[in-house]
């Protein structure tokens, strides 16, 4: 069945108010989040959070839809089941990236020379040169917590931090040295794995975005509903 025939067949079951709800609560929010996700993936910022054991801003696709609109998502997928396949592909790749970040965090903490670098850059003479005390750089007093935080930044290929991050002075001064740990012999294979699955997630992200846009365009043209904006209904539509 062609795309045009699909929309014609479903025309009697789908009205403009349903389309408006799909656009406002499912398709547009998901597209907005997927675009932001794409930008982060392109920067190799996996948004990994060690303590939460999660990717902060790279979610399974359904999480980009408000909890109150999950039923609308399910309804949309009932009419366009091929979208579920694209969502599933995205989520599989996303969860592989999560696993890769976990493994990379562990490799850096246990098998790299980060601990030695940490001890050097937080030695009294280094901190004096930095004009900081260690208690002003980290919330926790535990060195392992400091190392885990620095590892999180390394995993995420973090750029220079703004001043309001307490650890920014330390991170920004030694950022390049910290990031070189990604090329450490005991770490590089896990680093490359994260990049590999991140690139695969970019592809599944783009495929999902493409299909969402196709569905939105077809619905918009068939039912005379703009992508964004108020819906003006005729008397016939309101009866």
Topology:
Layout lengths: L2 H7 L6 H27 L5 E2 L4 E2 L14 H10 L1 H31 L2 H8 L2 H7 L3 H4 L5 H13 L12 H12 L8 H36 L11 H4 L1
Antiparallel strand pairs: 1-2
Structural overview:
There is one protein chain. Helix content is 67%, strand content 2%. With 239 residues, it is mainly α. The chain has a two-stranded antiparallel ribbon. Helix 4 (81-111) packs across helix 8 and helix 4 (81-111) runs antiparallel to helix 10 (188-223). The longest helix has 36 residues, at 188-223.
**Tally of separate domains:** 2
Mean pLDDT: 93
Number of helices: 11
N-to-C terminal Cα separation, in Å?
31 Å
In helices, the fraction of residues equals 55-70%
Q: Choose one word for the global shape.
A: elongated
Low-confidence sequence ranges: none
Tell how many strands the DSSP assignment holds.
2
> What's the main sheet like?
2 strands, antiparallel
**Beta fraction of the residues?**
under 5%
List keywords for this structure.
239 residues, mainly alpha, 2% strand, 2 domains, two-stranded antiparallel ribbon
Brief account:
The protein has 239 residues and is mainly α. 67% of the residues lie in helices and 2% in strands. It folds into 2 domains: 3-100 and 208-238, no CATH class; 113-183.
């Amino acid at each position: 069945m062609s795309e045009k025939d699909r929309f014609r067949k479903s025309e009697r079951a789908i009205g403009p108010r349903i389309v408006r709800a799909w656009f406002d609560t499912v398709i547009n929010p998901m597209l907005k989040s997927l675009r932001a996700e794409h930008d982060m993936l392109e920067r190799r910022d996996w948004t990994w959070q060690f303590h939460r054991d999660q990717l902060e801003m790279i979610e399974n696709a359904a999480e980009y839809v408000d909890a109150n609109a999950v039923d609308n998502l399910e309804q949309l997928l009932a009419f366009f089941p091929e979208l579920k396949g694209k969502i599933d592909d995205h989520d599989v790749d996303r969860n592989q990236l999560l696993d890769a970040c976990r493994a990379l965090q562990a490799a850096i903490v246990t098998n790299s020379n980060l601990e030695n670098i940490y001890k050097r850059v937080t030695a009294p003479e280094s901190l004096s040169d930095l004009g900081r005390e260690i208690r002003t750089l980290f919330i926790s007093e535990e060195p392992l917590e400091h190392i885990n935080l620095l590892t999180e930044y390394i995993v995420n290929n973090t750029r220079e931090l703004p001043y309001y991050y307490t650890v920014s002075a330390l991170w920004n001064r030694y950022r390049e040295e910290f990031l070189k740990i990604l090329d450490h012999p005991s770490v590089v294979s896990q680093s490359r794995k994260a990049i590999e699955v991140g690139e695969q997630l970019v592809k599944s992200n783009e495929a999902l975005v493409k299909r969402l846009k196709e569905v939105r365009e077809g619905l918009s043209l068939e039912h005379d509903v703009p992508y964004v904006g108020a819906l003006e209904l005729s008397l016939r539509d309101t009866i």
